[in-house]
Amino acid sequence: MLLKAVPILVLFLCGACLALDTWSWANHGKPPVYTEMAYMKSGWSDKVFGVGNGKLQERYWSTSSWSWIWANHGAPWGLLSNEYLAGPPCVMKDGRVYIISNKGRLFERYWSTGSNTWLWAIHGKPFGWVTLRYSGCACTSGGGGVARVFAVGTNSRLYEHYWSWSSNAWVWRDHGTPPGTSIGPAAIATCNLATCSTQVFVVGANRYLYSLYITSANPGVATWYYRGKPTGEYVHGVSVGPAGVFVTTYDNDICEYRSSNWYCHGKPSGSLSTPSTTISGAFPVDQCAQISDTPSSTRMIFINSWDPGYIKRSRIYSLKVKNTNNGQWRYHGTIGSCCYYVGAPELFLSGTCPKAFFTQSNGYVRELWVH
Fold first, then answer.
1. For 182-328, where are the alpha helices, taking DSSP H only?
2. Domain locations in the chain as residue ranges
3. Alpha-carbon gap, residue 42 to 186, rounded angstroms
4. What is the pLDDT of residues 302-329, one digit of tens each?
5. What is the CATH code of the structural domain delimited by 23-370?
6. What angle do CA 217, 219, 220 make, to 5 degrees?
7. Would you indicate the residue range of the signal peptide (predicted)?
8. How far is residue 11's CA from residue 245's CA, in Å, rounded to a whole number?
9. Of 128, 188, 229, 327, which residue has the fewest beta carbons closer than 10 angstroms?
């Protein structure tokens, strides 16, 4: 594929907290889960999925009992010897959950309307000897309604598994690497809402940000675009949400890619590190009455950072970004000496207000919500 000139990409973004806002923690217990969570909207219910001990776990809000409930989806059929679910799930917004195993194969848990039950499907691996990194996947049902799942191979190339209308089957596609570099170790990210175009963001091995844009046809024409890096910094990890694209840098700063420009928001006071997998997607919060001072396009992210005084003790922060370039940081506490938070916070909107879910290294899941 050819590297084309970067088109103007307008991203309306939104950000984090104020001292007047009231946030509370809720403990969801221990199924256990050891990966970061993935959100799914299902009718009137909120659901989050995670993996622990090789099993897929679901936490959902029951409108009948008006409470949160755990559902154990177990392990898929067809596992190889010593194979188990390993990676954090990625969710397609039509009732499909994808997980990569420790042997680099892709599995799916989906709701069958015909059977009125959850079923497993094996999608395997791309081609020949190629296996997938189980550090994560990304998926979308946007871009003309085409179902697409993306993952990086152990050969550092980007692969897509999409539903082919002509073949009436799932098909693998090799998208290779950004021009002149391979894909770095950081997780990939894409907008997974049907209203978003299909655009997958990756960090190159050269520590620059790239995106793969796919047109709305099936399968669609794919083109790599160079997005660059913040001035004087290098990109470590990337996270994408409906309110924009945020990255962590090797200088431990949080920066934002908006309208083909870079804006950096620094790091919270007391933060030692912001690793590549510890930043949530960005969500709009300007319609949430429980959060003060939110003009149009206000956006929010959550960060899982390290406490500088302790080894592997997490600190949770939120960042609220308004129409200015300077974001507002807020500290939401730490766990203590028992454990630390695993991976990225999972942020989503319940109604018009944000909720964030966090996984602890001891298998417990916690929630932070505003009221």
1. none
2. 23-370
3. 29
4. 999 865 555 556 789 999 998 766 789 9
5. 2.130.10.10
6. 50
7. 1-19
8. 8
9. 128
